[in-house]
Structures are given as C-alpha cells and as structure tokens.
Specification:
The protein is an alpha+beta fold and about 500 residues long. It has helices at about 35-40, 55-70, 105-125, 130, 135-150, 155-160, 165-190, 200-205, 210-230, 235-240, 240-245, 260-265, 290-295, 315-325, 340-345, 345-350, 355-380, and strands at about 75, 80, 85, 90-95, 95-100, 255-260, 335, 385-390, 395-400, 400-415, 420-425, 430-435, 440-445, 450-460, 465-475, 485-495. The chain contains 17 helices and 16 strands.
Length: about 500
C-alpha cells in the first residue's frame, strides 16, 4: 500500500489542505448548496492502491468477467459461434439453444431472475454487484491499474497533474490514453462480435469493410468505455446509477454492509504504538485517513453508510493493515449489520439473522423461476408450424373428383440439427397433403431455419359444402431418434 513517496503535511497557499490529505468540509446546517454539489462533481479523486483479501477478490472478478466477455464470442459450437445474437436473421444462438422472436418469454424470465438475484444480493450484503462485478467497477479497476503503471500511485499522480506541462508530462499522458483507447477499441470490437460473427468481423475490421451500424456501435461502446472508466469513474456511481438511489429501500438493519465501529474507534486521534491509547482516552482509530484515500468514490466510511459506498471493501483492507501495524484487534471496519453494531452481537449471531423473510422469499422465487425455466427449455418443442390459407382460392375442384385447398406452410426448426418432416391431415375422410414443388408429404428443413413451403390439401368430392375444421400434423425425429410432433389447426373449404 505504500507508494514510496513522501509529502509534506503543510497547508497549501490559500489555507486549503494539500490534495493528498482528505478534504473535510466544515459542518453546515441544512442541505448542501448547488455550488457545493457541483464542486464535488468537478473534484478529481485519486484512489490509493491497496492490497488485502477484498482487493484480491476484486482482481479475481476482473479476470473472471473479462475472460467471459472477451472469450465467449470466440467459442465455437457445431461449426458456428456459440453465443451470437443475430438480429438480422432474428435468431439468438446460446450454445446448443436457438431462440427466435417467439421465445421472448425466456428473455423476460431471465431478466426477472437477474433482477431478483440483484435484490437478494442487496438484501444480504448490500451493493456486492457494484463492488465486484459491475462493468463500471471492473473497467475502472483496469483503467486505474494502467494509470498506476504509467503515472505512479496516488501522490505521484497528484504531483503530475499539478505540475506544468512538459515533454515528460505529455509523453506520460499520451502513453496512458493510447493504452486506454486501445483497450476501449478492443472492448467495442468484442461487443459487436456478439451481434455478428466475430471471425468475419476481424477481417472486415482490418479491411475497413464494416457496415455503418457496426462502425457506430463499436465506436460508441468504445467511447463509452473510455469516457466512463477513464474520466467519469465515481461520478457514474454517485450521480448517474439508479441502483445507488433505490438500494436504500432494499437494505435493512440485518443487511451486511461495510461499517465503521464507532464505539470502538472514537475518539479518533494520532498516537504512538508505545502508549496505552485507552488510558489516553483514545479509540482504536488513529485518524490516518487511509480508508478515505483508498476509496474509489472518495467517501469517509467513518461518517456512516452512504449511498455512494459501492461495498468494494477497499477501506477494510487499508484499515486491517493499520490495525496490524498498531497491534490492535482487527475488524474496526468490517462487513457487519446495523443490528449487530447496535446490539453488540457476535459475527455468528449476526449471520444467523441473514435468513430472514425477504431473503427466503427472494431465494424461493429465484429457485422456482430457475427450475421452471430449465424444465420449460428441456420440454420445449423445437418444431413450430403455422398454416396460412391462400385467400385468393378458397376451394376448387380438380381432376379426379377431388377438392383442393391451397395453403402456405411456415416451418420453424429451432433445434441445432436438420429435420425431415412427414405431413398428414385429419378431420375429413381421405385427406391428402402435397407440399413443396415435388408434391410430396415429406419436407426437409435445415438446422435453425425458417422455411416457407407451398402446400395443397385434397379431399374427395361429396363432402358437405362450407368450412370444415381439420388438423395438420407434422412428425419428425431428432438426432437421438426421439419423436417430435406438432399439430396445427386449419380449415378446409368445400365449394357449393
């Protein structure tokens, strides 16, 4: 955590504290003014690097999320891209699953499960998603790592920004932004690789043959990554993210959140390790402000839980290192609940309150929807048939004493393998089905294909005039020789 720099603690001209000390606002009655809010938005935060268990968790999630994001488009499944949202063909490929616009209900269920999971995580441990898996947090961590490698840690970056422009400063800034833009461009290119075959996109990109919409979304997503992770950073979490605003309604006294133990830590103050701070009337907090310096949103956790806290645990790692150096007990800043802090509950007792009604309800709903989702996909019929009557010819007599009706048959094969369909019709005696140009009752449908086939149904003359309800039946077998069958209602018209 030590950045190897030294700095004076004397005040800067004008009486303001130097930038490497936390800026403490004087107490003010009422709400902050607009000018104060805008000043907070404009002020740049220089988070200090920190190591510890929660920092390692954040690094692990950075690698995991980016491995999934950058790696999924390159996976192959049965000769095609494993994950592909082909908007032009209106097909979503998810490994062996092919979803069509008619399957929008599955997307809706997935969104509901994701929302409930977010509610569950928040009810249990606050903004876990924000601190470890949110794209804004992940890319900010990556961009800050590049920034530290190029410009140095906190104090070095502050001094660089405050120094006048020179060739050295320009070289450092250009190098940093060149790496940022390269990463943002790679991110934007990968993003459009989810909507068009990425192997073809690579060739089209280097030959500058991308379409206008592909160029737009690649540049837009890349620019958003560069701007949000490189410049806006904590402002997205503090002022733009709606989740930060409504999380308070999902947090209750039993939710585990990053908490400063005020009864143990106050009164704060500097001291030597050799003195008995209890006898001196001091708490365990040495007022080093490292918890503020490492915070990516620049808050002071010692002032209590705030909506700007993303629950990343950086302040816990910083405080644990200070407690180790001072040989004090750990846990001055820790994940715990408000009830445990007020009632003095042990960690085990506080965890026993996690399984409360709202958590059980969220968990039950997620489990029920997940089981229903999986069962529905497993029992899903991969064959869909729509019968469209030709309105121009309701019914006509043909040679051989037969009555003929003309239809168009729309067949959708949602499976990942071709199908050979055999067609038949019931509802009237002697019905015969002739499909396609060959006039056969067998239709070949390619894998994940939508096929429109002309079809004729004939019946012997002599039936009662008018419309008769019939059923068109399509039968096939999958690769495992399991029978696939679907019935579609239609009508057969017999002229006078």
């Amino acid at each position: 955590m030590d950045d190897g720099s030294t700095a004076s603690v004397s005040s800067s001209p004008g009486g303001d504290p130097p930038p490497w000390r936390p800026h403490t606002r004087p107490p003010r009655p009422g709400q902050e003014t607009l000018e104060q809010t805008l000043a907070g938005v404009r002020s740049k935060i220089y988070p200090r690097s920190v190591s510890g268990i929660f920092a390692r968790w954040r690094i692990a999630f950075v690698f995991l999320t980016q491995l999934i994001f950058y790696g999924l488009p390159w996976l192959q499944w049965n000769g095609r891209q494993a994950v592909l949202f082909d908007l032009g063909a209106r097909k979503f490929y998810l490994f062996g699953l092919v979803l069509w616009p008619q399957d929008v209900v599955y997307l809706a269920v997935l969104l509901v499960i994701s929302a409930l999971a977010l509610f569950l995580f928040t009810a249990v441990a606050g903004r876990l998603f924000c601190g470890y898996a949110c794209p804004q947090t992940v890319y900010t961590e990556i961009f800050m790592w590049i920034e530290r490698k190029i410009e140095g840690d906190r104090i070095a970056r502050i001094r660089l920004d405050e120094s006048p422009w020179s060739w050295r400063k320009a070289r450092i800034k250009v190098t940093k932004h060149a790496l940022w833009i390269a990463l943002a461009w790679w991110t934007g290119s990968t993003f459009i690789g989810y909507f068009a075959p990425i192997r073809e996109l690579g060739h089209e990109l280097f030959t500058l043959q991308l379409g206008p919409w592909q160029w737009f979304w690649m540049l837009f997503y890349g620019f958003a990554t560069w701007g949000n992770a490189g410049f806006m950073r904590e402002s997205v979490c503090k002022y733009m993210c709606p989740y930060a605003r409504f999380q308070s309604v999902m947090v209750d006294p039993d939710t585990f959140v990053v908490t400063y133990d005020k009864r143990r830590g106050d009164p704060r103050g500097g001291r030597s390790r050799k003195i008995d701070h209890k006898a001196a009337g001091l708490g365990d907090c040495v007022d080093c402000s490292l918890c503020v310096q490492v915070c990516p949103t620049g808050i002071d956790i010692r002032e209590g839980l705030q909506y700007m806290c993303i629950g990343c645990g950086a302040c816990i790692d910083a405080c644990e290192q200070v407690m180790d150096k001072m040989q004090y007990p750990s846990g001055l800043i820790r994940y715990t609940s408000e009830r445990a802090m007020l009632d003095g509950l042990s960690t085990q007792s506080a965890r026993s309150h996690l399984l409360r009604p709202r958590v059980l309800i969220y968990g039950t709903l997620i489990l029920g929807l997940a089981v229903a989702f999986v069962v529905s996909l497993a029992l899903r019929n991969p064959l869909r048939v729509d019968v469209i009557r030709d309105r121009g010819a309701l019914g006509r007599e043909v040679a051989g004493g037969m009555i003929e009706n003309v239809y168009r048959l729309q067949i959708i094969n949602t499976s990942d393998s071709p199908m050979r369909l055999r067609l038949s019709a019931d509802g009237m005696p002697g019905l015969a089905v002739l499909a396609g140009q060959s006039g056969s009752d067998v239709v070949e449908v390619e894998a994940a294909a939508n096929k429109l086939v002309p079809m004729v149904i004939r019946a012997p003359a002599g039936a009662e005039p008018g419309a008769h309800a019939i059923t068109l039946r399509a039968r096939a077998h999958d690769q495992e020789n399991r029978s696939i069958e679907t019935d579609e209602a239609a009508s057969f018209y017999v002229p006078d």
